[in-house]
TrEMBL record:
Keywords: Methyltransferase, Transferase. InterPro entries: Methyltransf_12, SAM-dependent_MTases_sf. It comes from the Bacteria. Pfam families: Methyltransf_12 (PF08242). One of its GO terms (molecular function) is methyltransferase activity. Residues 4-64 form the Methyltransferase type domain. This is Class I SAM-dependent methyltransferase. One of its GO terms (biological process) is methylation. The keyword Transferase applies. Transmembrane segments: none annotated.
Length: 203
């Protein structure tokens, strides 16, 4: 996504659908004040080249913002009374292992053994820095938090898929069964706590 300030200070936002791994990515687009890419660059074979391509979309003085990293949301108590304690730690561990495998399976993957602020600097951007935004919806949960936690557990368990052992799979089925006493969405002790980190550099 690119955003530009018009002369009268209105923000003009342009949604661009394109392959950020392609050599001609962004060709023909007007230079932008802001390029925002959220959790996308880590899917590219050559992440550093992708950052450089995104940086190339900026006008002088424009900023590239990358939402990457951060601290994954936690939503559950350690012990749930169903299945073995520590379910969310196992799920997040399996998710991370899946991420590592995803990187190794990308054709032409290039390692980037440093952090995103360094990647911004190596892409020729100045003042590379970062900040983190806290997401904190403490227990007891509102109805919206209940639904979000159900969606989080559903999405996370689908993502780790067959890596999940049968006992944890049975636990998750019990937690997601809306008609059962074990339904996660009916608990008073669920919450959402996590952070999103944004790395910013200026051309
Ligand atoms: C983890 S999702 C993030 C979605 C959303 N931006 C967010 O922050 O929630 C990864 C996104 O990267 C996009 N993506 C993966 N490879 C890409 C590529 N080569 N060019 C452009 N987008 C890509 C996918 O289409 C997907 O939308």
């Amino acid at each position: 996504m690119k955003a530009a300030l018009d002369g009268d200070d209105r923000v003009r936002v342009e949604i661009v659908t394109a392959d950020a791994a392609a050599e001609d990515f962004g060709a023909g687009l007007p230079a932008a004040d802001l390029v925002w890419a959220s959790r996308m660059v880590h899917h590219l074979p050559d992440q550093q080249a992708g950052v450089a391509r995104l940086a190339g979309l900026l006008r002088p003085g424009g900023r590239l913002a990358l939402a990457e990293g951060g601290v994954s949301a936690r939503c559950l108590p350690w012990e749930l009374g169903v299945g073995a304690p520590g379910l969310q730690d196992r799920l997040l561990g399996l998710r991370d292992a899946g991420f590592a495998q995803m990187r190794t399976e990308i054709t032409g993957a290039v390692s980037m053994p440093y952090g995103w602020n360094v990647a911004l600097t190596r892409a020729g951007l100045a003042e590379a820095t970062s900040f983190s935004v806290l997401t904190d919806h403490p227990a007891p949960p509102t109805p919206a938090v209940r639904e979000s936690v159900v969606a989080w557990l559903t999405g996370l368990s689908e993502r780790v898929g067959e890596r999940l052992g049968e006992p944890d799979r049975a636990t998750i089925a019990a937690l997601l069964d809306r008609s059962a006493d074990t339904y996660i969405g009916a608990r008073e002790d669920i919450y959402i706590l996590g952070t999103t980190t944004v790395f910013v550099g200026r051309r």
